[in-house]
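Final report, Chapter 2: Outcomes

The project's central promise was a pipeline that accepts a single protein chain and returns its three-dimensional structure in a standardized token representation, suitable for archiving and comparison. That pipeline is now operational. To close this chapter, we reproduce one record exactly as it appears in the project archive, with the input sequence first and the structure output second.
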Amino acid sequence: MKKEESIKMFQDAYLEGKGEQARAAFFAKSVAKQYSCIMAWRHRMRHSNKTTDGSEIIDHLRMARRRLNGATEITEQELRTVDNELAALRDGVEVFRTNRKAREIEELEQQQAQILQRLRMLKENPDQEMH
């Protein structure tokens, strides 16, 4: 991918929330400097403590959407494959939600068991100090 294509793909996300002066300053830079700024920003975004798996997936989806919008030639077979992958992604999101809910339920049940055990101990030994 050329630098210009990369800049076009990521500039909206990079400039999001920036003021007009910052935007103008960015566009006044050479292509090499714009590219460098965007790549440094992407590196910081990928490696910051705030980045989650979800934010990386969102970045990839946004990039894919931009590439699709900018595409000039996609075969019908490739479009069917894209549709199939999107359906698989939707299914994957539902599986993730189901698994996350199951993990949360298990965690809460474990906490409940610990609380009930502690409550039983306190009732059986009323003189025992609480932690």
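Archive annotation: The helical segments are 3-15, 20-28, 31-47, 53-70, 76-124.
This record, like all others produced under the grant, will remain available to the consortium after the project formally closes.
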